[in-house]
Amino acid sequence: MAMGLGCTARPGRSRENKTGSWRVFRPVFVHEKCTRCGMCTTVCPEGCIMEDEEGLPVTDYDYCKGCGLCAEECPSEAVEMTKEEK
């Protein structure tokens, strides 16, 4: 498999590896506060926050690493980072 300079894996490889198992904190969405701005889906580096049929955010926890960017950037403070329970 040929790789370009600076590449360690081909794009899209994270979908083959469920990376959420080492998360310490998980985002929990407070839908009553959510304004449906889409900022959380935009800033998520793993692309694991999607919108449901009502336009509210939902997280695929199999891939969420708990980085907290969604909570940091949410203008309505509708994302709470809670300690992961395993």
Molecular structure report:
The structure is a single chain. The protein has 86 residues and is of the alpha+beta class. The chain has one domain: Alpha-Beta Plaits (2-Layer Sandwich). Helices cover 12% and strands 19% of the residues. It is built from 2 helices and 4 strands, in the order βαββαβ. The strands form 2 sheets. The chain has a two-stranded antiparallel sheet with strand order 1-4. Strands 2-3 form a two-stranded antiparallel ribbon. The longest helix is centred in the middle third of the chain and has 5 residues, at 39-43. The radius of gyration is 14 Å and the shape is globular. It starts with 24 loop residues before the first strand and ends with a strand.
Walk me through the topology.
Layout: E1 25-29, H1 39-43, E2 49-51, E3 57-59, H2 69-73, E4 79-83
Antiparallel strand pairs: 1-4, 2-3
How many domains make up the 3D coordinates? 1
Name of the top-level CATH class: Alpha Beta
Q: Could you say which structural class the secondary elements and strand pairing correspond to?
A: alpha+beta
Figure out the total of helices.
Answer: 2
- Which regions have little confidence, pLDDT < 50, spanning 5+ residues? none
Strand arrangement in the largest pleated sheet: 1-4
Strand content: 15-25%
Specify the CATH architecture. 2-Layer Sandwich
Query: Which shape, going by the Cα principal axes?
Result: globular
Looking at the structure, the CATH topology is: Alpha-Beta Plaits
Largest sheet: 2 strands, antiparallel
Overall pLDDT score: 85
What order do the SSEs take from the amino end to the carboxyl end, as H and E?
A: EHEEHE
Q: Determine the fraction of residues in helical runs and give it as a percent range.
A: 10-25%
Topology, number of strands: 4
User: Rg from C-alpha positions?
Assistant: 14 Å
First-to-last CA distance? 37 Å
